[in-house]
User: Which sequence fits this backbone?
């Protein structure tokens, strides 16, 4: 019985993700018209979900109900229209369909990839809609607690049929021991396909329902400070940044979760209630993450480039696709800035480092600075290093593919790192 828009919640004015077809149309009553006080006398004999393959009884799909009028005994089977439909109705109908955890999501036939195809539904012989304008109170368990149009009375088309994604209570029990990000060659990295290591083995997460909060939680679980990007593994800009089919087979990694179920504000996996993948899904829908270290009030990589010096002029030149790695790091807290060399890192990280430093696709080969035959001219020479007191300033450098430089992770070179062993690369 609200009377002022100030009592309601909504997106900011002008903020939406809707198209013209979704504009609301109203049919209003004159004040003198009296609303019918008709008792809704129906009972749901059965509620099932039929997915896009026509399989009935799955945890996601178009909702089909078998409804009986308790007064006349008339029975019909059909869909539920999405008019007035909300989370309260979705939770109760998921429970009726045999999923005690209620609803994770609800949508309609037009928007959901899990909807039963129109031709398949029409050939089933079921009525188009059994219920319309269904409205139920919180924690309802019987249709007698709800209101709706009389059975089969509706103004809906096929696209408005409700689609549900339900969850089992047992989903909560899954124990995740580790989260890893795998690249094409089976190496763990700061960006790659997400693999969960559980008591049941290795598993993947479906990307479509992951939120920014959940991406942040997964990055922290993988040992990083923050998320830089997330999405479908198959949509990564470089195929080397996703786990290969061979590696999935080797690890016996299959789709394990539809969602990790983290509420807004969650900071740890213990705050989340994962939902198992209830029917076999393609690994093409696996989640990919790019993670990094925010290093707030600590050192961050401000710039990474290739450098070489001219032994005759003593000048240093940067911005090439080959040369000695030349890094600039800064401290947000103190304002201090350092420039210097990078200790040679593992081969598994060199392609991303090369891409970050030069913009080239990857690394053709790398070596220690001292191994370059024409030391100087195509590298930072020993003379330049001595004349300018250049040090190795970082080691264990890893960078996200295509991400910002401040997403790279590294360690300060506080030990004894030989300058002649600095990282030299040729990128293409």
Assistant:
């Amino acid at each position: 019985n609200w009377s002022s828009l100030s009592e309601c919640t909504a997106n900011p004015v002008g903020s939406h993700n809707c198209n013209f077809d979704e504009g609301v149309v109203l049919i209003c009553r004159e004040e003198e018209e009296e609303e019918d006080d008709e008792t809704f006398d129906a009972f749901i004999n059965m509620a099932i979900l039929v997915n896009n393959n026509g399989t009935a009884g799955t945890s996601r799909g178009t909702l089909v109900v078998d409804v009986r009028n308790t007064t006349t005994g008339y029975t019909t089977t059909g869909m539920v229209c999405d008019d007035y439909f909300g989370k309260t109705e979705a939770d109760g109908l998921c429970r009726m369909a045999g999923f005690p955890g209620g609803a994770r999501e609800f949508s309609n036939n037009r928007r959901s990839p899990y909807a039963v195809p129109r031709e398949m539904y029409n050939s089933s012989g079921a009525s188009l809609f059994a219920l319309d304008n269904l409205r139920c109170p919180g924690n309802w368990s019987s249709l007698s607690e709800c209101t709706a149009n009389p059975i089969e009375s509706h103004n809906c088309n096929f696209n408005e049929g409700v689609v549900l994604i339900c969850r089992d209570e047992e989903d909560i029990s899954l124990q995740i021991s580790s989260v890893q990000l795998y690249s094409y060659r089976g190496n763990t990295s700061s960006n790659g396909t997400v693999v969960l290591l559980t008591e049941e083995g290795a598993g993947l997460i479906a990307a479509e329902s992951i939120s920014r909060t959940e991406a942040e939680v997964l990055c922290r679980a993988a040992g990083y400070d923050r998320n830089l990007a997330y999405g479908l593994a198959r949509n990564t800009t470089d195929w080397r940044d996703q786990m290969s089919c061979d590696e999935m087979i080797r690890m016996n990694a299959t789709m394990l979760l539809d969602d990790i179920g983290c509420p807004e504000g969650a900071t740890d996996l213990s705050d989340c209630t994962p939902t198992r993948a209830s029917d076999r899904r393609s690994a093409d829908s696996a989640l990919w993450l790019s993670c990094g270290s925010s290093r707030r009030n600590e050192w961050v990589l401000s710039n990474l480039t290739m450098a070489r010096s001219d032994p005759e002029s003593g000048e240093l030149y940067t911005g090439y696709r080959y040369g000695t790695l030349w890094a600039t790091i800064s401290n947000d807290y103190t304002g201090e800035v350092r420039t210097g060399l990078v200790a040679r890192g593992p081969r598994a990280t060199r392609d991303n480092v090369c891409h970050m430093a030069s913009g080239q696709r990857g690394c053709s080969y790398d070596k220690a600075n001292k191994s370059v035959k024409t030391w100087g001219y195509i590298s930072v020479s020993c003379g330049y290093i001595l004349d300018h007191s250049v040090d190795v300033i970082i080691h264990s450098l890893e960078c996200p593919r295509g991400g910002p430089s401040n997403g790279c992770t590294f360690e300060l070179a506080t030990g004894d790192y030989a300058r002649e062993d600095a990282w030299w690369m040729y990128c293409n």
